[in-house]
Amino acid sequence: MSKSKPITLGAAIFYGGLIAGILDAGDGVVAYYFAAGFNPIQVLQFIASGLYGAAAFQKGISGALVGLLAHFFIAFAVAAIYVGATRFLPMLSREAVMWGTIYGAAVFIVMNFVVLPHTAVVKSPLSLPLLLNGVLGHVLFVGLPIALAARRITNQSSFSTQPLNYKARAFRRNS
User: Fold this and answer.
1) What is the distance between the alpha carbons of residues 56 and 66, in angstroms, rounded to a whole number?
2) What is the Cα–Cα distance from 92 to 156, expressed in whole angstroms?
3) Does 145 fall in a domain?
4) Which of 134, 30, 20 is nearest to 79 (CA)?
5) Given a cut of 60, is residue 1 above it in pLDDT?
6) Has residue 157 been placed in a domain?
7) In Å, how far are 8, 56, 108, 119 from 124, measured between CA atoms?
8) What is the span of the domain harbouring residue 155?
9) Domains in the chain, number
10) Per-residue b/e over 16-39, b at no fewer than 16 CB within 10 Å?
11) 160 has pLDDT over 70
C-alpha cells in the first residue's frame, strides 16, 4: 500500500470540515426523517432554529440556507480545532482512528449539553435511537473524517518543528 500524499494544514481543515459536514448532514436528514418525519428542508431549518428559534420553520428556503451555512461553519470550526491541536499533540495524528473516535463523541457531548442549551434551538424529539445515532454518527461521520484528514499533514514540513529548529540553528551560525 502506498502512502498518501501529505496535504497542507488549510487543506486538512477544508477537507475534514467538508467531508464531516456532508456526512453529518446526510446522517441527520436520514435520522430525523425516520424519527420525526422531517424532510431535508426541515432538518436544515431545525439547525437554523439555534439562531431563530421556532421562527426558522416559517422562513422557508432562506431558513434552510441559514441552517446549512451554520452547519458547515460548525463543521469547519470543529475541524480547525482538531487539526490545530495536532500541531501540539502529535498523537492525534499518529493514532487518528482512536482519537478521531473520541473527538467525535466529545463533539456530540459538547454540542448537545454545552452549546445547544445556550441557543434558541427548538427542542428535538428525544429518543434512544436518536441519541445512539447522534453519538455513533458523530464518531463515524465527524471525528473520524477530521482525524484522518489531519493525519495527512503529518509529513508536511510546516507541521514538523524540525525545519524551524534547523533554520534557527542556521540563523545563529550566520549571525
Assistant:
1) 9
2) 15
3) yes
4) 20
5) no
6) yes
7) 38, 14, 14, 13
8) 9-174
9) 1
10) bbbbbbebbbebbbebbeeeeebe
11) no
For residue 122, give the DSSP letter.
P
- What average pLDDT does the segment 106-134 reach? 92
Inside any domain, residue 1: no
Whether residue 3 is contained in a domain is answered as: no
Question: Do 77 and 3 meet the contact criterion of CB atoms below 8 Å apart?
Answer: no
Residue 64 corresponds to which cell in the numbers above? 434552510
Give which of 10, 27, 7 is closest to 140, Cα–Cα: 27
- The whole-angstrom separation of Cα 15 and Cα 20 is 8
Q: How far is CA 119 from CA 20, 49, 52, 54, 103, in A?
A: 22, 8, 9, 12, 22
pLDDT exceeds cutoff 60 at 24: yes
Q: Give me the pLDDT at residue 154, please.
A: 63
Of the candidates 130, 134, 153, the one whose C-alpha atom is nearest the C-alpha of residue 143 is: 134
* Residue type at position 64: A
Query: pTM here?
Result: 0.84
Contact 161, 12 (CB under 8 A): no
Separation between Cα atoms, residue 105 and residue 136, nearest integer Å: 8
